[in-house]
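Reviewers of the previous submission asked for a worked example of the structure-prediction workflow described in the proposal, so we include one complete record here. The input consisted solely of the amino acid sequence. No template or homolog information was supplied to the procedure at any stage.
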Amino acid sequence: MTATADAPTSLTPDTISRLRVPALDELTNVAVKGFFAKQQRDEGLTSNWFRALSLNEGDLERLNGYLLPLLGSDGRGGLTDREREVIATVVSGENRCAYCHSNHANKLGKVAGDWSFGQRVAIDHHQVAELTDRERALADLAVAVNNDPRSIHDADLNRLRELGLTDELILEGISIAAFIGATNRIGIALSVPPNPEYTGVPGH
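From that input alone, the workflow returned the following structure tokens.
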């Protein structure tokens, strides 16, 4: 199921996942309840993908403990926010995950200050001239991690080093690509639709 710009502004739990989705007032895990409350305050919504996973609250709490810092929500150093979102957007596009593709393209546009940039990277990063050499190399690495990790050779890693990436940053890029691939597979299996807010042109 794919939402469109004309979709309703909210989706009922029954349409968020192929499995049961608990209502927010059913949740008992303090960390999970706090996560959704913060999302509502900061973004004015609760994301469909996280709502779908809230069926197993403990698993969602543990997942968030790894995923959110990996995507830079804790203000960590390392890869830039834009580089992280380039990786997440490219991988989600490769896997054709409707929710993750729309979500990360939208976030990349916000980070870049150009909504169309995120959308164009989502379609085909090879055609986006504004990508830096470092972003392009990270995107290529992400595709390889997702599609055929055995195809990665020392020369590919040396290319990243020549562009100024340390081994720690390369590992971070690999980890983001691999983990986003896992989240894509969950979203696809549950048929989680994008939030309508992720799919329309801002201001329209």
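Confidence is low (pLDDT under 50) at residues 1-9. We consider this example representative of the routine output the project will generate in years two and three.
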